């Protein structure tokens, strides 16, 4: 990447650095144990794949609706209260996961963790646009955030395996402590904002949630893109809980070592290839990058469908292929939404991405039932076909975007703009 881009990272605001570093530590401790949750529920309560899928799916689906709403709230009342609330909910959720000894306790804790993430993510992502005016620097910061998330994902399972805590429930307390540290860091970062520049509460935007929804509904390209991304997340998510259930019920050899190795391969692939791939594809439009990533993802689904259960290294090879697809797809999805979002509706647009959870969270349920009744090969051949559907949706979105009359994202009744406020004051207002 251009050296000037990298140097620009040194000048990022403290709040952005808190999000970046918090993403690294939060995701690292999260991945020490979370991927093994399906194994824990199977071993602790003898639950079948369908029930485990339902537990993981239903709570996340409820949180998806909340995330959509909280993104709009962050546009109206500022990012601060939502970021602090979401972080603290995560503290409670992971402490509960560390001590839960009943199915009901796990359900409550899993639901809270999904809620915390849905409350935290939209304002955190919107803040990049609020505080970084240069488009190229903002896109690099979004890419760098995804890089740090996966660096944490790589180190988490590795550290967990080394110290023998990967499949231990009490490890969730470490994740809770990491979110508690993030909560304190946010308090410090918000306190460091220049005195006198913080506006009165409730003036970051005066649109109602209903009017914001009407604005989003008129942005046809955005709606098609969100639909395509929901399906893409549904496809990708089967590499997580569904695959683990498939390997578990079919007695794959060395299941804990295999899962840890797959998580490590996934994260290391992104850590080492994300920026080289970005450099190679820098002259391509974002949509074209995403379509290429979907092609790689489709090949990975075919590999999963036909890989023999006993072939340890085959699973790692398929994981590598899908990880390459992830390194292309997910950062560019964030860049894509950032480009679509109007400045005074960033929280709402990123809040709408919480609907991705319908794809992500329905995967364990659909995957568990499919594996239980028809087997893993049927599941992954179906996801291969869905990859083709997503590609067609992206082609359709490109054609809609090229139409002479584009959907206007801002309506008169939807948003009260910042008017004649200085640009820097408007940015601080949307954050606080």
Strand content: under 5%
Count of individual helical segments: 17
Structural class: mainly alpha
The largest sheet, given as strand count, sense and whether it forms a barrel, is: none
Terminal residue distance:
32 Å
Transmembrane segments: 12-33, 45-69, 81-100, 144-165, 171-191, 221-239, 259-278, 290-306, 312-330, 350-371, 377-397
Main location: membrane
Protein name: MFS transporter
Subcellular location: Cell membrane
Structural features, described:
This protein has 432 residues and is mainly alpha-helical. It has a single domain (13-412, 421-431), classed as MFS general substrate transporter like domains (Growth Hormone, Chain: A). Helices cover 78% and strands 0% of the residues. The protein is built from 17 helices and no strands. The protein has helices spanning 3-8, 14-33, 37-45, 49-77, 80-99, 103-131, 135-162, 172-191, 209-218, 220-249, 255-280, 286-306, 312-340, 346-352, 356-373, 376-401, 423-431. Helix 15 packs antiparallel against helix 16. It is globular, with a radius of gyration of 21 Å. The two termini are 32 Å apart.
């Amino acid at each position: 990447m251009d050296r000037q881009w990298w140097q620009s990272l040194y000048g990022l605001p403290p709040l952005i650095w808190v999000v970046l570093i918090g993403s690294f530590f939060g995701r690292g401790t999260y991945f020490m144990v979370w991927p093994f949750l399906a194994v824990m529920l199977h071993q602790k309560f003898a639950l079948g794949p369908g029930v485990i899928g339902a537990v993981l799916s239903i709570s996340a689906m409820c949180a998806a609706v909340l995330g959509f709403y909280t993104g709009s709230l962050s546009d109206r009342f500022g990012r601060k209260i939502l970021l602090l609330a979401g972080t603290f909910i995560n503290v409670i959720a992971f402490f509960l996961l560390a001590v839960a000894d009943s199915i009901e306790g796990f359900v409550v804790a899993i639901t809270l963790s999904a809620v915390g993430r849905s409350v935290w993510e939209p304002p955190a992502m919107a803040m990049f646009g609020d505080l970084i005016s240069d488009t190229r620097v903002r896109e690099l910061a979004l890419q760098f955030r995804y890089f740090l998330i996966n660096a944490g994902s790589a180190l988490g399972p590795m550290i967990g395996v080394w110290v023998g805590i990967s499949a231990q429930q009490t490890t969730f307390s470490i994740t809770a402590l990491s979110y508690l540290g993030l909560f304190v860091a946010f308090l410090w970062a918000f306190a460091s904002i220049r005195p006198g520049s913080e506006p009165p509460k409730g003036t970051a935007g005066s649109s109602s949630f209903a009017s914001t929804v009407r604005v989003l509904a008129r942005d046809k390209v955005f709606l098609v893109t969100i639909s395509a991304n929901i399906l893409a997340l549904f496809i990708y998510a089967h590499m997580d809980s569904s695959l683990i259930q498939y390997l578990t019920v079919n007695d794959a050899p060395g299941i804990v070592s295999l899962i840890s190795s797959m998580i490590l391969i996934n994260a290391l692939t992104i850590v080492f290839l994300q920026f080289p791939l970005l450099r190679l594809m820098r002259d391509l439009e974002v949509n074209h990058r995403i379509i290429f990533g979907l092609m790689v993802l489709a090949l990975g689904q075919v590999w999963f469908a036909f890989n023999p259960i006993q072939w340890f290294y085959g699973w790692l090879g398929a994981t590598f292929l899908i990880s390459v697809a992830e390194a292309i797809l997910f950062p560019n999805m964030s860049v894509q939404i950032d480009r679509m979002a109007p400045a005074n509706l960033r929280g709402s647009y990123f809040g709408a991405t919480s609907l991705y959870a319908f794809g992500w969270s329905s995967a364990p349920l659909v995957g568990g039932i499919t594996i239980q009744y028809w087997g893993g090969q049927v599941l992954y051949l179906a996801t291969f076909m869905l990859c083709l559907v997503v590609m067609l949706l992206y082609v359709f979105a490109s054609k809609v975007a090229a139409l002479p009359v584009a959907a206007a994202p801002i309506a008169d009744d939807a948003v009260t703009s910042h008017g004649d406020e200085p640009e820097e004051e408007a940015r601080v207002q949307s954050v606080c």
